[in-house]
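Workshop exercise sheet. Pairs work together: one partner reads the sequence aloud, the other fills in the structure field after running the prediction. Swap roles for the next sheet.
Pair: D.N. / O.F.
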Amino acid sequence: MNRFSELFKKISDYSQYVDAYKKASSKAPGHALAHIQWGIDLAHEDQLEEALQKFEQAVAMSPNRPEGYTNWGVALAKLNRMDLAIQKFEQAAELAPDNPNNYVLWGAALIEQGLFPEGEAKYQQAVELNEKRKTKYPDIYVNWGIALARTGRYQDAIVNFKKALALNNYQPQVYFLWGTVLAEIAQYEEAIDKFKTTLRYIPNHPDAYYFWSVALNRLEQYDEAIEKSRKAMALNPDKAEIYLNLGDAIANSNTGRLELAIENYRHAITLDPKCAEAYQSWGIALCKTGDIKEGYKKFEKALDLDPDLTAVHQYWGIALVEEGRFTEALPHLEKAYQDDLKQVDVLLNWSMALAKTGNTPLALEKLALVEQMDRWNPTLHYMLGTHYLGIEEAKRAKTHFEKALAEKPDFEEAAIQLALTQGMLGDTQEAVRQMRAIYRTAQDSAKVNFYYGQALFQHGDTKDALIKYQQALTLDTNFLPAHKGAIEAYVALDNRDAASKQLQQSLKQFPQNEELLALGTTHQLPL
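Structure field:
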């Protein structure tokens, strides 16, 4: 769900259009107009059948007033009685063929029914009529702009907002709408300027603060996003989306206070139990805290509430890849990719899942797509490097690991694999040198100790390699590669008793592990 585009659905209600009728009726009060106003108020409260009665009564009192037919048509459209609604709009047009407001409401009603081409045609009629007037209505351009934004024609929408402001510069809501359109097309800095202008006119505009905070989140300016979210919250403490956005800002900020973020997601759901995005963000935060099982439950709940919230599949799929559940990750990543063909992270994780489940050709296809979009992506080159390393093309692997490190010098995994590749190419001394440099900054990492041991083993320093394997096991007794490394080192040192003892200890840790059993068979070690 896009929080900017969703706004246009919320503001597409016809209430702002009929304000002009209310103003007109206050200048020339009459019994029929009073019934029209009454009907409008009832319609705003979704008492549509009662509203229809008031409009019908108004038309009976003053059959030549177009406003009665127009608002009658709007109420009928809201009740999905479009054939009757169109009849009322047509009657209003016969009575006042030069009145653009009727066509605006007609167009809005059609668009609400998903009839975009027909709705746009009515808006265009309204604009053409407005252009002929000596005193033009700014609202016509505003409403046409909203309709254009709803159909994805954002630049055209901005043109119409500018026309409205040229007629009347004091329209803070138009600046606000302009800002949301700019944000929708990812022009976040420009959008923030419009929200600031809105707030100069209306300092306590909660939505301007809220959407400003959303834009700041997109710009990864999380501390300021937190500040603006809290201002929005102070003005509108009952809006679930504000707590959701605040939670996202807190979760992504330098402090990374995930428990506080989760509190905000929980409060958002208290305010709006159907807020699917809050469940999605809650799930992401839980996965980051290590509570994977509960995180998946929140993803499932998000999709139950909104099956079209396909971003859930992205986060769920990536979380499954990180957990090593590659087969389960595949359908989620495929769904996420179908929703957004330019998601580099999805493609990279999809490729990894495919490779791990034995579909190397398709995995390489996904990496080729990434290369077209982001040819210098360090993860891309790391994955290509591991692929070539796996098929023993060490020279090509080395090139890709070097590219990964050129783009991301602190990419530890790429540095480790580059060192091991040097050993495979025969330069075991360089491999040891590179691993020693990595080890100096990560002595408490079981993985780094293990790979340092691997480099030493390649170089023939078997005793030192064994020390590193043992150190890795001290740091993490569940690190299977270190168990295997220690067994291989004991065998290489011709200490078969120690190798057999290590194998027995390892099998207690990993009963019936096929890789360990295969080592025992290969080296004829007694169990």
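Discussion prompt: The mean pLDDT is 89. What would you look at next?
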